[in-house]
Fold this sequence. Notes:
The structure holds two protein chains of two kinds.
Chain A: E1 13-17, H1 24-40, E2 45-46, H2 50-54, H3 58-66, E3 68-73, H4 79-86, E4 90-96, H5 97-103, H6 117-138
Parallel strand pairs in A: 1-2, 1-3, 3-4
Helix pairs in contact in A: 1-6
Chain B: E1 9-13, H1 20-36, E2 41-43, H2 46-50, H3 54-62, E3 65-69, H4 75-83, E4 89-92, H5 93-97, H6 113-137
Parallel strand pairs in B: 1-2, 1-3, 3-4
Amino acid sequence: MKSKGSDSQREKVIVIPCSGIGKAFGSISRDATYEIVDNLRKDVTQTLCLALLVSGDEESLQLVRNNKCITVDGCPLQCAEKKVKLAGGNLAGSLRVVDAYKENRHLKPRSVTFLDPDGQQMALALAEKIAKKVDDLLEGH
Amino acid sequence: MADAQEKKVGIISCSGEECVEGTISRVATRLVLGKLRPNETVTICLPLFLAGGKEEREFATDYPTITVDGCDKMCAKIATERYSGKPASSIVVTDVTGNWYCSRLGPRRKLDEESQAAARKVAEKVAHEVDEVLERWM
């Protein structure tokens, strides 16, 4: 019988934002990810550097191949999703800020460097969706 | 050759998600773009650049670039060299801050005062490098 192992050995869901820098949506993808990994689901998730993964870092490659991954992309180009797929990662979910925007059209995030209140609110809304996806994945759905 | 009106320097930050230095690289880049050298610089979205963005790669081939990396793994610099050419200058946050390590438990989401000061310091260094690059370009 398999041991459940310690916390550090348990399966984690890897949440990877695009962190696009040109528009607020990239910052929202990043902020929503931090809300998950530092707050909402901090014991069962972690993030990694997308650029490091793309550079071929072995540790990052193993992490995305051996754990379920959720990508969080700012725009429809979905760079994070593409790169995780290309790395042979175990892509289990893919969310887009642009979809959160469609569901929260009253919010008008503009600031990129530091999110304004609308951007923060959208990041929280997106984080709730990511949290639900994380729970589904850990329950085996 | 680009004429005087087209002279721009591309700033490419790693925006590494794991450590606070990645956030510092990102904030410093935005400070240069928004405040310190708004007319002389543009940024290139690294994930799009990495994903094969044609415009991004062409820009980085035709115009000088400055990479801003959080740690000595220098992902932005390596990617720029791989896909477009050697950057005119490359800056590493940990070199500027004097920390030799990438701190994974720092306030990476919302920079504290110390990290904001580091971001300003990095931004000033980038701005200085922009001036140097433009001077060489004259």
